[in-house]
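Sample intake — VWFA domain-containing protein
Collected from: Batillaria attramentaria
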Amino acid sequence: MTGSRDITSVGAGLRSQRACARSQFVKSWSLLSPERSVDPSPPALEFSVTTVMRYRALLLVAALSGLAFAPCFDKVMDLFFVLDSSSSIYVEDYKQELQFLREVVTRFDISRDDTRIGALTFSDDFQVGFDLDRYRTKGELLAAIDERNLPYRTGVTNTDAAIRYVRTNQAFRDDITKVIVVITDGGSRSPGATAREAQLARDAGFYLAVVGVGQYLEEQEWRNIASDPDSEFIFNITNFRFLESLKDSMPRRVCLLPPIILGGECGVTRDADILFLAAPNGINDALDVLTDLPDDFRFKDRLQVQYIMDACENAVDRGFQGTDRYCDRFGNALETTENTYVDLLSRLRDAARTMRTERDANQVAVLFVDDQSLQANRFGILREARNIATFDGIQIVVVDLGVRQFGNFVSGLAQNPDDVIDYFAQGQSQSRRRLLDRICENINGFGVVQPV
């Protein structure tokens, strides 16, 4: 989850990881080009987006060549492993989980100030083997990875309780990379609760990775747990013997993850159009959420905004000045009919097309969805929203304003489940923060961090 963040803080976090990339870059380059002599003290690498892209390309080449990598040095990170030990896992397979954990530990620079690792095992309940602040050296940590501290438990799979413990753990440090790795062979006892806990963890600034064992038996649940994109946060193997194959690729992936800094501003790095839509029954709630939202964006001159609401003017808000200038919450609103929301979506498409004629920009539509509108014409709304995403290439973020029925239609309006925000469950403040985060990620693109 990398959208809303303080760009300066993230840049500092990335710089703290330069040594990791530098060490692995030098060793990998020498392995790939043995005829070249490599200066053991090469000039410092500029940790720019271009460098990261080149480094990832190098990783791909090396991975295809079967090359190993140097440990991830100087990585400031808290990493917590959640190990499934339910009855569906044989004791010998569980021992493979412990061995995999040992292999991962050897690939990080373990210390109080760099990478810290915690682990628990879970089934009906969970047992914490060791917390993040328990061991300060790699030797101590490796010695603690055994069945005495992390016992094989048996029972049902209560994944939600395990994730809840980790995300509420007070031992995690602020403003650093925080990662939860869930190793499991199947579905949890309560998939809905597991998905909610995973979402809350992502909202709190955690990356979540899933090591799924089996032929995607529980693919949707793994997707609900993992951060996006799935291709980078879901590691699928057919059985536990193949955990060995992930001992390099998984640590390599988390080594490059920047911190997710919450409560910061969205630094706009490219031109973008944002279109906010609300039907008459949802206008007041929508305006409440949008109040002060422009204050959380930096470099707003790159934004153009339009409000597809009866209470707002049709003019384009250049520079995102805010709803106070363009909307009147006491204005006359039209009565909601079967076609009201679909008509608003058609207006949104027309407005987006007009804006595209002026410049090439990413476009994000924020749909505030109320219960009355969805009950009136849920199929028409779903069809038009999917057309907007498919044929117009507009990213859709959905704010659920208390839909009581047909919640599955709400989740179907967005291409990405993380782009659905439950306004009443999370409250106005949390909803605004999540909305900022999702808009920021969609307009900037995944993983895009450019220097200010």
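Post-analysis note: The radius of gyration is 24 Å.
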